[in-house]
Amino acid sequence: MAKIIVITSGKGGVGKTTSSASISTGLALKGNKTVVIDFDVGLRNLDLIMNCERRVVYDFVNVINGEATLNQALIKDKQVENLYILPASQTRDKDALSKEGVEQVLNELSEKFDYIICDSPAGIEHGAQMALYFADEAIIVTNPEVSSVRDSDRILGILQSKSRRAEKDLDPIKEHLLLTRYNPERVERGEMLGVEDVKDILAIKLLGVIPESPSVLSSSNSGVPVIHDQTTDAGSAYDDAVERLLGKERPHRFLNIQKKGFFKRMFKGSVSA
Amino acid sequence: MNFLDYFKSKKKNTASIAKERLQIIVAHERGQREQPDYLPKLQQEILDVIRRYVPIDQDQVQVQLDKNGSCSVLELNVTLPD
Predict the structure, then answer these.
(1) A203 touching B, CB under 8 A?
(2) What is the enclosing helix (H) or strand (E) of A75?
(3) Distance, in angstroms, between A151 CA and closest chain B CA?
(4) Is residue A270 pLDDT above 80, yes or no?
(5) Cβ atoms within 10 Å of B77's Cβ, excluding its own
(6) How many other C-beta atoms lie within 10 A of the C-beta of residue A218?
(7) Closest chain B CA to residue A189
(8) Rounded to whole angstroms, how far apart are CA atoms A7 and A5?
(9) What is the mean pLDDT of residues A183-194?
């Protein structure tokens, strides 16, 4: 039986797909057979972030409709053993995902994989509800900013009332907070909500804090999930988050201002991440 | 704004304003979340009945459901015009 983890947020643009790519890569790198599914029908992007956009032949909706088998649609990652991507359909609308169809695909994947990561679309409509419905755990991606925090709380309400676990009265979905685009300098200056503030408001367990970092954009530019580059702050922050997801204790780094060393200051810019 | 105010205003802590605003709105929305789905419709129908006799506005009827252990209290608050 695979563990099903949804990566969701309510608000768009907070880093769901970036986080899905890095977390699934991290799980696979640590020896877990992992599949990551793009639920964003009509606006697929996970393929681009994971550098397999030219290898998409069949998609999630094709499998649901019986137009292709799962093995035909799954794309094997070129860099990481044990990692597979199931792309979303680009041409259908979001209602193409039926609850029965999604369940059938998840059941089939569940036999072969250890982890199923569901990359949710933004919003709280059908696509987002399908992504979270069957989840065992949820990673709520949140930016330290008012609209994102409010939307995260809204999504928590949906996880607690409209998921399979809620409807069937099973143990509730395990909720994890992933705070992204964090800027300790701005928190220090009182310009940005701090980790403790967001934890106070949402009242869920902290999985990790990903610092705002230029390496995130450069990694999406090249289609290599940022977790591959452990020399970057964002990459190692994702690695810590994956370790915590697997039950290990890791201290939270990057919560405080990183003091630039003498050399870094001297060569500012020339050795950027 | 005088000369000194200019420097003071720069130190305004907007993060704490954000936190305060969020705590209020999130608490309010969580309260609504726990209410049953029929409440808005109930409120509308009560409003319609009262309107047959007294002209009142949408916001002059407040319906709230509070839970106290095993006992639920439906509170109805109607403000009638003078």
Answers:
(1) no
(2) strand A75-76
(3) 9
(4) no
(5) 9
(6) 15
(7) B13
(8) 7
(9) 95
Are A119 and A37 in contact by the 8 Å Cβ rule? The answer is: yes
CA distance A190 to chain B (A): 5
Instruction: Tell me what ipTM this predicted complex has.
Output: 0.83
| A151 vs A8: CA distance, rounded Å | 10
More confident residue, B28 or A21: A21
Structure tokens at A140: 């709520």
What type of residue sits at position A104?
Q
Q: Strands A34-38 and A115-119: what pairing? A: parallel
Size of interface A-B (CB pairs under 8 A): 43
Contacts of A157 in chain B (CB under 8 A): 29-30, 33
pLDDT of residue A271: 47
Q: What are the angstrom distances between the C-alpha of A217 and each of A23, A92, A151, A273, B4?
A: 16, 28, 24, 11, 41
Q: How do residues A196-210 score in pLDDT, each as one tens digit?
A: 999 999 999 999 999
pLDDT at residue B5 tops 80: no
pLDDT tens readout for residues B46-78: 889 988 998 888 788 888 777 777 888 888 888
Length of chain A: 273
- Residues of chain A with pLDDT > 70, as a percent, come to 95
Alpha helices, DSSP H, located in A89-229: 99-112, 126-133, 146-161, 164-167, 184-188, 195-202, 214-222
